[in-house]
Amino acid sequence: MTALPFDPEEIRRLSQKFETASPQAIIAWAVEAFWPDIAISSSFQTHSLPLLHMAIHIRRDIRILFLETGMHFWETLFFRETLEMKWNLNVVDLRPDDRWNNFLQLHWRELPHQDPNLCCYLRKVQPMQKALEGMRAWITGIRRDQTRERAAAQILEILPEGLLKINPLLNWTEAEIEAYRKKYDLPEHPLYAKGYLSIGCAPCTLPVKPGEPVRSGRWAGSGKTECGLHTEMFKDRSLTDIHPSLDLGQLDTPEP
Ligand code: SF4
Asked: Does the Cβ of 135 fall within 6 Å of ligand 1?
């Protein structure tokens, strides 16, 4: 992997400076600094579109990473396909490692409810870690007003192995997202009007009632608020990191 063109102190200084910059200015800086080793992730829901719209107006062929977990609403996949064709997007679908195929097929129904962290790790975190290997920069759409974890994020964050995570919308609010959507007449996910204000995988997403927090329909009632892409889990590189009870040490090959 090529070394970052900035040292950690420089990144901290820039991140502070970007606190008052527009998302477009931050994306433009990132594309200029890291092209072609840069990608943007998108969940292709209604509120993801402003960031996508900004990014493709700065660099039309920017690589867009979509987590094809195998558990999406068909409406999400249809929306993703339609937008890819309409906006001529460079989308890359990320799928779980083939090694987990049998396991995920066998346990697809109960795993999201019995062990959502393991499910998210296999379907989202690992595929994203793999897709970002060799990249230098990763643009995400997280905002400080979304969750407690995201409130503590920085606009520029150095992740393990030198990857720079860039969060251009960190200071935006729901109202600013809405205003941008209206200004550019951006399309809406087919389930948005049915109360699905924040959409992830089908087994873990419910519609929200008027006045409820936008993300309250995600893993509702489970206490889980994040899939792991934007938490410490993203630094975990093995199953035993997220599942200490799996004592794989017992499985070491015995000495002959
Ligand atoms: S959001 Fe639900 S179904 Fe999707 S990966 Fe996470 S636990 Fe599994």
From this structure: no
Strand 156-158 versus strand 164-166 pairing type: antiparallel
The verdict on the CB of residue 112 being under 6 Å from ligand 1 is yes
| 241 CA → ligand 1 middle, Å | 18
Q: Domain with 191 in it: what CATH number?
A: 3.40.50.620
Asked if 65 contacts 40 with a C-beta cutoff of 8 angstroms, the reply is: yes
Helices (H) and strands (E) in the chain, counts: 11, 6
Residues 6+ apart with CB under 8 A from 199: 43, 45, 46, 73, 76, 189, 191, 192, 205
Q: Give the max Cα distance, the chain.
A: 70
Helix (H, G, I), strand (E, B) or coil at 11: helix
- What pairs with residue 138 in β-bridges? 39, 165
Whether 228 is in a domain gets the answer: yes
Kindly report the pTM of this predicted structure. Answer: 0.92
Binding site membership of 47 for ligand 1 (Cβ less than 6 Å): no
Encode pLDDT of 184-232 as tens digits: 999 999 999 999 999 999 999 999 999 999 999 999 989 999 999 999 8
